[in-house]
Amino acid sequence: MNSMKTNCKESSTGKQITKWYRAKGRNNLPWRENITPYRVWISEIMLQQTQAKTVVNYFKKFISRYPTFEDFKSASEENVLSLWKGLGFYRRARNLYRAKEIILKKFSGKLPNSFENLITLPGIGKSTAGAILSIAYKLPYPILDANVKRVLTRLFFITDGNEKELWDLSNQILDKTNVDDFQQGIMDLGATVCTPKNALCGECPLNKKCISFYKGELPTVNVKKINKKNVYLEFEIYEKNQKIFLVKNNQLGFWDGLWIMPIAETKQLKTELIHKLSHRNLHISFANKSNDELKSEGKWFDISQLSKLPTPKPISDKLSLYVQNFL
DNA sequence: AAGCCGTGGAC
DNA sequence: TGTCCAAGGCT
After folding, report:
1. N or C: which terminus of chain A has fewer CB atoms within 10 Å of its end residue's CB?
2. In the predicted model, is pLDDT for residue A225 greater than 80?
3. In the structure, how far is the CA atom of residue A256 from the C1' atom of nucleotide C10, in angstroms?
4. Residue nearest to nucleotide B8 (CA to C1')
5. Residue A99 has pLDDT above 80, yes or no
6. Which domains does chain A have, with CATH numbers?
């Protein structure tokens, strides 16, 4: 067993992954064309905790609006949030805007190519910095995303979820001469072969080295149990002359910066629909109000503006119903 | 340092 | 149907 563990740390493992990637990796992902630091940055932020398939259309839309960093320079936070609409984890969008401003002020308008500078930017942590350095600048820095974590956990049969050990291993097996393809390869391996359920070990290029495959036992990767709280929200609908009144949210602790309808202070527990967030179940209801009751600070939006306005999913759904009724 | 942040794919 | 969980970072 020890010889096996030593065996898979050899640099040949990294090269096997690179080779596999070039033959069988996902070759239809838009951020893998015309690779530039800017495009890698945008895609890596979008891909945080978000499946590649979900990101594809958002990335295309973003890039078609802002093809290069030069085009992105003048974007407002509201512009970025609009392009993020429906993608979730909206702090990423606001951090992207903040990071852009810092790049303009402190880094001469160029995305840094050093680890130390990259991780000073909001939204870029150790793993995202590693991805940018590896894929955009071809510098050998480790990544530890969910895919890499799962592959390494199984390859080396790490049962205690030791993060430092996983980072060390990620660093050790790097194919330094082909870091860009290697990193995309190990992530593809985790996403398409070494999957959470029904792993395709028979197709894995590393199965002869994999301790878990040898043992016939795949260790489970950190399953966090979350206690979801129920939150009751009643949204007030104010409408006049084909306009809807909305407020910019900063009171909920989630959906920060998105436009929502004013929230009623009622304590009645009504549930028209349940919208599930990662940590809460929202019980949502709506109430039609008369405009003389309006006290919130906000803005009237014409129905023609609503589809592009950054609003959270359940609000977007409700608003689109309203727009349909006017047509 | 554990809890928080959104939405949807996959099964 | 419900459940798991995703190219994580921030506080």
Report:
1. C
2. no
3. 14
4. A54
5. yes
6. 2-215 (1.10.340.30), 229-326 (3.90.79.10)
A315 CB-to-strand B distance under 7 Å: no
Do residues A262 and A298 lie in contact, with contact meaning Cβ atoms separated by under 8 Å?
yes
**Residue A51 CB-density burial (10 A; 0-12 exposed, 13-18 middle, 19+ buried):** exposed
Nucleotide nearest A226 (Cα, C1'): B3
Q: How sure is the predictor about A26, in pLDDT bands with cuts at 50, 70 and 90?
A: very high
Per-residue pLDDT at A238: 97
Q: What's the CA A101/C1' B2 distance, rounded, in angstroms? A: 31
- Asked if A151 and A190 touch (Cβ cutoff 8 Å), the reply is yes
* Least confident segment among A18-22, A23-27, A72-76, A217-221: A217-221
Integer Cα distance of A166 and A148 in angstroms: 9
Is A270 near strand B, with its CB below 7 A from some atom of it?
A: no
* Average pLDDT of the segment spanning A70-95: 98
Which two structure tokens, joined as six digits, stand for A276? Answer: 């599930």
**pLDDT beyond 70 at A2:** no
